[in-house]
Specification:
The chain is an alpha/beta fold. The chain has 5 helices and 11 strands. The two termini are 29 Å apart.
Length: 209
């Protein structure tokens, strides 16, 4: 995750310019910074600070799900709402990036694949509701959420363990693509498969403060 966080942090920093400092693993200071929430402080994956005042002006959380999605999906979603509310209630913009494979392995305790899960319309339905929230009313809703659904080509040979799964895709890195848009329409609070639009929203939100 460090290279991913670092790449996003670097891009946001380049857009904002030298008046802002971006903290993240994999970029510049190579560590996360605390954001003061209404109830508790939190280390955000990516934190943006105003260099003149030292004030934190935005945070970005990044979640990349690559396995065992269904058993944790509701808990992860509720945790996302809670951490967003904590930060946004302290008058700090907060953004979420949620990346998921459209077909995920489900491992048992021995790291053997026991089944495959598919990211379906049912799974995404709660994000559709979130997308239609009024962010000025609902502080548990991120200022903007990016959902990135990634498609990996099917393996040419059957893989049965986590090790075999990882080794196959390390040897076959070509062909990674975005899943075609096949989900319900989202409201303005969620962006699907468009990082550029998301990054521009982050930039304009910070510039408007």
């Amino acid at each position: 995750m460090k290279p991913l966080h670092g790449a996003i942090a670097r891009d946001i920093a380049n857009r904002l310019g030298p008046e802002y400092e971006v903290w993240s693993q994999g970029y510049l200071h190579d560590k996360e910074a605390d954001i003061a929430g209404r109830y508790t402080s939190k280390k955000a994956d990516i934190t943006v600070k105003d260099c003149t005042t030292g004030k934190t002006v935005a945070g970005i959380a990044v979640k990349f799900v690559m396995q065992n999605y269904s058993q944790n999906s509701n808990n992860n979603f509720e945790n996302m709402l809670g951490e967003t509310a904590n930060i946004r209630c302290a008058a700090c913009p907060y953004f979420q990036i949620f990346i998921i494979l459209d077909k995920l392995p489900y491992y048992n305790r021995d790291k053997r694949i026991v089944k495959w899960e598919t990211f379906t319309d049912h799974n995404i339905s709660k994000y559709v509701v979130l997308s239609r929230d009024n962010i000025d009313v609902f502080f548990h809703t991120p200022n903007k959420t990016l959902i990135y659904v990634v498609h990996l080509p099917d393996t040419a040979a059957e893989v049965k363990t986590q090790t075999e799964y990882l080794e196959y895709y390390r040897a076959n890195r070509h062909g990674l693509s975005l899943t075609p848009h096949r989900y319900p329409d989202f409201g303005s609070a969620v962006i699907l498969n468009d990082y550029e639009s998301f990054a521009e929203k982050v930039f304009h939100t910070i510039m408007s403060l």
